[in-house]
Design a protein that fits this description.
homodimer, alpha+beta, Rossmann fold, Dna Ligase, domain 1, D-amino Acid Aminotransferase, Chain A, domain 1, nine-stranded antiparallel β-sheet, four-stranded parallel β-sheet, 17 strands, metal ion binding (chains A, B)
Chain lengths: ~350, ~350
């Protein structure tokens, strides 16, 4: 893409969840129209989009119609079926590109990619049988964590092993799916870098946020994170190396463990990321607009931050806290318009602006 | 309204322009669905709303259908035909209420209301003929400005008089419409207060912004405004008095002239206001969300400001400046999705965050 996409052009978004919703609002803010491709009805993104094409990823005719109705395609989740991408990419540019999806769709390929760049990950071994698992445990040691290579999110598709005795159950939990055993990393805390690369190769990073998870689900992200100046530099350089290696266009989320020996990459997500939601309150250009800018060939925001923020996810029954939260000054509420409250379901988030 | 409206409820918005668009996004952020009533097709608000009912304000069946599909009704402009309000208010609550519309739809009624509260306005006289105009000019003196009582905005329906010689032309410009002659006020600058009143009577004000107009159209609003502490207090108290007198629910814009003798009320607008757009960058709860909160019976944000901001409108060919503006760090761009660029047409705005 050489020319920036003009306002009035249509951005196609694969996936109609909360990330698609916030991408759609950001695109509208830049004067774009938006089209959502999502099998589900009444999806969060459709509430704030121009068009919603409700069809499955195996519906070639619908995919074709969708692609032909938009100027560029992006997505809110990495597990887009390859067959759908084959249809779409013949018709319109897709950002971020296939390579980013290929790498991030499979934990083994991702870790091979990262270590190939000279970055540090937790020790890992591919596991395709209980025997593999026992051999991997011998090498890596316990405790360790077994994860399916594909389709895991929010702690789903994972089993923790305290000792070799847990191997049979853990492997059974994977239901035969190709998996990876990851060694435990002794880390003080987790941070993530939300970084972006533009169509012209420029890179911009937001200030790293510090993440707290519970039951495998992100609960809070706080900026600024507890990081030294050199750790901050390392985080930014590392994100830039990943983006350049993938010839990436868009926003990426890079989760990092902070250890005395340096930063260890946990995982990458080729999309806007829950740990970047704080940017909605702290930055002139938030991660959603940053992503749309990249995808549309616009100049990126510089990632500058002008407020301290604590982002907290509202999960399941946290919705009951809304009346109280609404009475808090300096708390910005972001709800996703999901009809049904379910345990573990991300219903919204709040950004608490910390005034100095 | 005693119970706050639950997320998932539907907010009906009369008017599909940029204010409706930004109200719709704010409502979505709180988990509401939105329905736009707007005669025009492909209107800015419809791009980010759940529903758009395209019909005229004289279409009783459409108005009825609209009201029955929503939980509460608000609006983005004050010139809603009385006959439409008659249909709508029988079916659903409308906020702000009829009294605010009655007062603000007519410049004479508005000025009578304001002076009745003990507030100061420019000297004014009702004008219904050229003879009236000459008599009014004798009393008020020149220079002065003649305005139609109704339907004026962005400098439309106005004529300036340098002397009595301009009377014939000025009256002709009004095309026979009931008008008001306003005396000139010697003011150093104009500010506006964006204030809100909740369903329970609580009042919250944003920090006053300083406005610069050109050719009758707002160009920039800057916060903080040049105001002394006592002027700031006066501005807030005055806005509160207006809100309480109208038993108001929602956001109001109050334009004020700053003079050595105190603050003079220029006009009020019973809706979110162009001079409050800066709140999108400087506040946890912006004017659009504040309005939705009030209308939905939610607690209000406290109006606290955590950044200095200069808002600049993008008018007509200013759209050509977008590529350059997009390269500016700390500039947040807000475009309205209008298909056609026209001279004098508000196409978008930018909020420049000023870092200390």
């Amino acid at each position: 893409m050489t020319e920036p996409l003009a306002p009035g052009s249509v951005i196609g978004i694969l996936g109609g969840g909360q990330l698609g919703r916030m991408l759609s609002v950001a695109a509208a803010r830049l004067g774009f129209k938006t089209a959502i491709f999502e099998p589900g009805g009444d999806c969060p993104a459709s509430h704030v989009a121009n068009f919603h094409l409700q069809a499955g990823y195996d519906d070639t005719a619908a995919l074709t119609r969708f692609a032909e109705s938009v100027d560029v395609i992006t997505y809110e989740f990495e597990n887009i079926p390859t067959s759908a991408l084959d249809v779409l990419e013949k018709l319109r540019p897709i950002h971020p590109g296939r390579e980013a999806l290929r790498v991030s769709q499979d934990r083994i390929i991702e870790k091979d990619f990262l270590t190939g760049l000279g970055l540090t990950t937790a020790p890992y071994r591919a596991v395709n049988s209980e025997d593999d698992l026992r051999a991997a445990l011998d090498e890596i040691g316990a405790p360790a964590i077994l994860k399916t290579c594909r389709f895991g999110y929010d702690g789903k598709g994972q089993a923790r092993l305290s000792s070799a005795e847990d191997a049979t159950q853990a492997w059974a939990d994977m239901q035969g799916a190709p998996s990876v055993l990851e060694g435990f990393v002794e880390f003080s805390h987790e941070v993530s870098v939300i970084a972006a690369r533009g169509a012209n190769g420029e890179v911009a990073c937001f200030d790293p946020g510090e993440n707290v998870h519970r039951e495998g689900i992100l609960r809070t992200t706080t900026v600024p994170a507890r990081l030294s100046a050199s750790q901050r530099t390392d985080a930014v350089l590392l994100a830039g190396r990943i983006l350049n290696a993938l010839d990436y266009v868009g926003v990426i989320g890079v989760e990092l463990f902070v250890t005395p020996q340096g930063l260890i990459v946990n995982e990458i997500a080729p999309r806007v990321h829950n740990s970047g939601h704080w940017t909605q309150q702290g930055c002139a250009v938030d991660q959603f607009e940053q992503h749309i800018r990249a995808v549309a060939g616009w100049p990126l925001g510089d990632g500058g931050r002008y407020a301290d923020v604590v982002m907290e996810n509202l999960i399941g029954d946290d919705m009951d806290r809304i009346p109280g939260l609404a009475r808090n000054a300096n708390v910005a509420i972001h709800l996703y318009g999901k009809a049904d409250v379910k345990p573990g379901r991300k219903m919204g988030h709040v950004n608490r602006v910390i005034l100095s």
